Model the fold of this input.
Amino acid sequence: MIKKIIIYFLLITCSLFSLRYLHYYGLLKQKQGYYGKFNVAFFEKNKFNVLILGSSRSEMHYDTKIFDSITGRNSFNLSMAGSTPQSSYAILKAYLKNSKQPDYLIYEIDFHSLKKHSNQIKEFNNFFPFLSNTDLRHQFNKIDSRMNHFYFNPFYSFPFVGLKNISTSLHGWLNIPNQRDHLYFKGYFKQCVQPNLTYEKAIPYYSYFNLANRNYLDSIILLCKKNKIKITMVSSPVFAGGAIDIINKKQIIKQIKNIAKQNNIKYFNLSSPTFCNKRYLFIDHFHLNYTGATKYTYIFSDIFNNNISI
Done:
């Protein structure tokens, strides 16, 4: 009886590992969309000379195609939705494991979310096929201690896969692009799928640096200095310049400027451009749509040419 149980257990285990291999293979075949982006970021040997890092704001605000055309650089938008300074540090370190260090890193400072620190990784199951990148797994496991279990134990990871993930894998096997894959270009996501901002009630609040976020911002700066990467911190546009959302915006910006000064790096507060009151350029108070991102990228590209790359 015990022998049969052992045999059944081994058969089930082998089957699960086989199914997981087939599932991941379909995801890793993706050449576009966010899986294509993850493939480039975590597995390929890249030579991008400009990286853009941050959360969904920077993923949608920095159009790499426009930026490259104006600056003559070869950029990649490494930003991931829901990223905190800690997960951004993990993503940058995982990228540098296989790729040549860039000349420049543009790090987006979301001063409206600095007080938020999370022990969760947004849509963490999307990262499962990439946990063989040891730096990614090690750093992500510091955020969510389940990551090592997800990598080594298919019994543990399968319940978290989800139908959307399986569907994406099937698309990879059949070489059929997903609906939004064409909206990605070198890591940038063209936000033209959500409606424009109408009237969204704002609840003003105080922002501040969570200690963990401050420490990992320092870690990103130190990692760049160690690898001789010129880091520049930027805050991109928010609706109405953030004045209706963040009560102490001036104090937060002053603190960021002090951090930049202490580390001898540049910080550009671009949160309040002339167009920041135009609702048709935003999808909510903190995210530009494609039209807004186009306007902003032209502005930032000129700043890069005239103030950063010189």
